[in-house]
Design goal:
two-stranded antiparallel sheet, mainly alpha, 5% strand, globular
């Protein structure tokens, strides 16, 4: 998966979940289902319906979380 390419197609709630959980390496099946529904992309899943994020995906999500945190500090 390349979360960066899919990011703009995700629902705001899904993006927020990812930003709120930047250290998560394994996406729960509810998040996987939300990504698939929003993007039409079928993600590789394990036998539990979970998807493992690549190091690149994890880094992108961490950067998105840091950016959101910085923006919220400047708007406060």
């Amino acid at each position: 998966m390349n979360i960066e390419k899919l990011w703009d197609r995700l629902e705001p709630g899904t993006r927020q979940w990812l930003v709120d959980n930047p250290g998560c390496r394994i996406l729960p099946r509810t998040v996987v289902a939300a990504i698939a529904k929003a993007t039409g992309e079928e993600l590789e899943q394990d036998r539990h319906g979970e998807t493992v994020l690549s190091p690149r995906d994890c880094e992108f999500i961490r950067r998105a979380a840091e950016l959101q945190e910085a923006e919220s500090r400047t708007s406060s």
